[in-house]
Structures are given as C-alpha cells and as structure tokens.
Amino acid sequence: MKDSFLDNYDVNVIIIDWSTSGANSGLYWNTAKSTKQIGILVARQIKLLCQYQGTTEDKFHLIGHSLGAHLLGFTGKHLDGKIGQITGLDPAGLFFENKPRDSKLWYTDAKFVDVIHSDIKPHIGLGIIEPLGTIDYYPNGGKSQPGCKKERFSSFFNSLQDGLTTLISCEHSRAYLIYLDAITASKRAYQCENYYDYKHNYCNYCGKDDEMCPFVGPKAAEFNHQGKHHIKAYFKTNDQAPYL
After folding, report:
1. What's the pLDDT tens digit per position in 188-211?
2. Is 3 a residue of the active site?
3. Annotated catalytic residue: which of 65, 90, 118, 173?
4. CB–CB of 29/95 below 8 Å?
C-alpha cells in the first residue's frame, strides 16, 4: 500500500509500528486496551510535525485496519477532530461494538471518516457491524466475501497455519486488499439503506455527474456529504485480486 501511494500520489507516507507497544502482546484484550494510549502518542507526533514542519492537521490522512482503525480514532479525538481524513478498514468489533462514541472510531474524529466493513455478523464477524463514519461502505453486503470459500480450501494445502489463518480472517483482511486496489481504481459505490435494496437495484442511480455515488478509496473525501453522516454505501467486488 505504501508503494502504491508513493507511485500514484504526491504524498509522504509514515507507517506506525506499534508491535512493541501492544500489538504483539499475544492477548487481544491487552492489545485492544493499548489502542487509546498509542493513539494519543500518534497524536503527539502529528502535533510535533505541525509545529516544526509547517504542516497542519487537515493535511493528514490516517488509515488503519482492525484495531488500528480504532487507534486512529483515538488519535483524531486527541486532536479535536482536526485531522483531514481517517479511513477505517474493517474496524474490530470485539470490545468496541455498541460502546460509547468516545471508546471507538467515530465520524467526528476527523473532518471526513470513511469505513469499509468486510467481516460483519452473522458471518465470523471480526469487524464491527454498526456504522461509524461519514460514509460506511459494505462491499458485497459486508459479510461473506467472494472467493473466501475457495481461499479457505486451498490455503490448507499450503500449511495448517495458513489454513487456520485464512479460515478466520479472510473476510477481515479483504478490507485492506480492496482499499489497496482502490488506490488506482476509480470505483464508485451506491447509497442504499440496506443490502437488500442494493441487490434488487432499488438505489442504483448516481444522479447527474455521479454526484450521489461516492468513490471507494482515497478519493472518498471528495464526496459532498452535505453534513450527513453514517451514509451507507454498497458495491460488488471480484472474487480474486484485483478486487475492483
């Protein structure tokens, strides 16, 4: 993803390595608790960059997967929502679902928050089902992702570890793989109240100049959301890479 951003955009990329500060603790609960602390530390680093490098918070686009999405939510909270954009890639559900807004990623944590939900219940459900962002995308309905059944079967031929990892996390990982493709693909999603309406083509209208259909990926913030939030959007993907 870093390489794709540098190849296609005039940006600087900073990667947050929090593996020694909680992400590799081995216990999910400890890692989940550490997201708030690490998020605040990231906010402090952004403040230093703004102070000494002449940039501003609204120039930052923060992207995080699973627990990393909530971590960046805490970063945005600590910076009073001044961050330009936060992208949550299948934010983790366990210990965050149905919690107060100050305990998870929320649409007020940045000027624009886009969220891709790829692994919600009643499937395995590692991701959070509830809408969190300015726009919440649910590819293929957000549950069973095309190609995961085949990947689960074939991965066991590589090793037991690969098979178990894919069994649990195929849908959960699909969010960042979709986003990786979205860096270079111009994919739009349809605004719908639910997946049923989307599947039955009740809301497949983008309006004049496609103004009603937000882009998926880095250009999502170009969408004129008119102050609304928790806008639900749906789109289909392929069953293998490239997914868009």
Report:
1. 999 999 999 999 999 999 998 999
2. no
3. 90
4. yes
